[in-house]
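Q: What structure does this chain adopt?
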Amino acid sequence: MTARGSRRQSSVPATRLGRLLGLGLAAGELVLGGVAEGVRRLAEGERLGAAQTLLTGSNVRRLARRLARLRGAAMKLGQLLSLEGEEFLPREAAAALAVLRAGAEPMPLAQLHRVLGREYGRGWAARFERFDDEPVAAASIGEVHRARTRDGRELALKIQYPGVARSIDADVDNVAALLRLLDVLPRGADIDALAAEAKRQLRQEADYFAEARFLARYRRLVADEPRLLVPRVHGDLTSARVLAMDYIEGAPLETLAGAPQAVRDAVGALLERLVFRELFEFDVMQTDPNFANYLWDARAGRVALLDFGATVEFAPEFVAGYRAITRAIVRGDRSAVRRHAVEIGYLAADDGEAEARATIEMIMLVCEPLRHRGRYDFAASELAARVRELGFELHFRKGLLRTPPPETMFLHRKLVGAFLLLARIGARVDVRALVAPFLREA
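A:
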């Protein structure tokens, strides 16, 4: 085994009481911070609403630190809120929550070894010629360690934090209570339905046998694309809480920001086309576009796809609805956009003209890359800021936006994350041309 570095570690609270205490402290800090901010602003002659006093940058940074220590569903939901929140959170609050996307602190060594002993049995280390105690990555559900087996296989072992799987329901319920306290979701938000969808997806994400099946499925689905690589699963070392797969060498995808423009554009088009294939061709989508879930192999000119825990299967009618509304968006047919928005659930049939205009305006803005003719410059567009400003105006000031249906939550995460990926690497992509083949009538 290799020695650990000096990276900061923290034990993962594994009991229900410990996790409840952690979220209780988070809520308490949020309220106390909000009270202090409200008093300060009042003394300066400024009156703020409850959400505005709670969602200051310093207050949300404290919340983010608590969620990061808890890991599991609590941290995962914070990551999701940080992406979805681009549309309705104040700028400094969204930036504070974004730190959750950077990764988590690893487990202490003793806790890590207890997990491996429980999954592999006593003497687990004898299975490996080398096991690196220092993780190569640490995220919300688990951390990844490099290992070499006695027969020479180079592996990445994704090891789940203790207590994560059995704490999902309680974590989601407690974070839902925080969302009610913050009152940041658009009007008509069915928090119970959103929580139920989050629980369903997170239970799947904590099931490593399910992720192993999705890994194998994706290897088959992208086998016709030599510029994409999905690692193989090693079943003899995979359990419900440890996923063993090929270790893949590569650089963080963000390093492409320094590559020639032609390379960045080609990779951006590759990733954007993959999104369309997932939605319109595969009927299954990996919905966690965290930067750490991609690696760039410059020598081979290909992208490795690493994490398939947050994978969603789409029903045919779901896909048909998005194909129809995408056709209407590309054509600029606002009446058809409204009709399909009602079918999907972005609008209700009895919503008034003001609500319909606001929803269509938001849809058309968010889908700007689809409507653009020629290459869309993701880094230069400032679309995220414009969407945030419009969402804040339509939700907080006018109350005109509905919460999207729960079943769209993870699709939205992929679409927002894919945009951020392409902006980060500075890609210019003809999105309209890429999507066109997927919109043709059968």
